[in-house]
Write a structure and sequence with these properties.
The protein is an alpha+beta fold and about 100 residues long. Helices cover about 25% and strands about 25% of the residues. The chain has one domain: Gcn5-related N-acetyltransferase (GNAT) (Aminopeptidase). It is built from 2 helices and 4 strands. A 4-stranded mixed β-sheet has the order 1-2-3-4, covered by helices on one side. The longest helix has 15 residues, at about 50-65. The chain is globular, with a radius of gyration of 15 Å. It binds coenzyme A.
C-alpha cells in the first residue's frame, strides 16, 4: 500500500505467489516460484508521481525475498497506460490471448 503523510491510502498492489512458473520456457527448475501481480492501482489524482513504480519496486523486492524469480502481469489489452507503464519498468510482452464469443 502507498499512503500520504496523513495516512490516506493512494495506491496498492496485490500479488499471488504461484508454486510453479506459468511462463513456460522460463522454467528451469520445477520448484521455481513466480509472482503474478493481480492488481495495481494508483488513485487518479496521484498518478504521475512515481507511486506505481515505487509499489512495483517494493513488490518485486518483497517477492524476491520469498524466493520468486519471475513476475507475470496480465493486463486488459486495450489498457494502453498499463502497456506503457510496464514497458517503462523493464517488463517485456510475453503472451497474448485471443477470444471469440461462441
Ligand atoms: C498504471 C498505473 C499504476 C501507473 O501509476 P503511476 O503512479 O501513475 O505511474 P508512475 O508515476 O509510477 O510511472 C512510473 C514510470 O512509468 C512511466 N509511465 C507511466 N504511465 C505511462 C504510460 N502510459 N506510457 C509510458 N510511460 C508511462 C512514467 O513516466 C514513469 O517514468 P519516469 O519516472 O521516467 O517519468 C496507474 O496509471 C493506474 O493505477 N492505472 C489504473 C489501474 C491500472 O491500469 N493498473 C495496471 C493494470 S494491473
Amino acid at each position: 500500500m502507498a499512503e500520504t503523510m496523513e495516512g490516506k491510502v493512494v495506491g496498492f498492489s496485490v500479488a499471488k505467489i504461484l508454486k510453479k512458473d506459468r511462463l513456460g520456457k522460463l522454467v528451469s527448475k520445477s520448484d521455481i516460484k513466480s509472482e503474478e501481480v493481480t492488481s495495481l492501482y494508483v488513485d487518479a489524482h496521484y498518478r504521475g508521481n512515481n507511486i506505481g513504480a515505487m509499489l512495483m519496486v517494493k513488490t518485486e523486492s518483497f517477492l524476491k525475498k520469498q524466493g520468486c524469480m519471475h513476475i507475470g502481469i496480465r493486463i486488459f489489452w486495450p489498457n494502453k497506460n498499463a502497456h506503457g507503464f510496464y514497458k517503462k519498468l523493464g517488463y517485456e510482452l510475453y503472451n497474448a490471448t485471443y477470444i471469440k464469443e461462441i
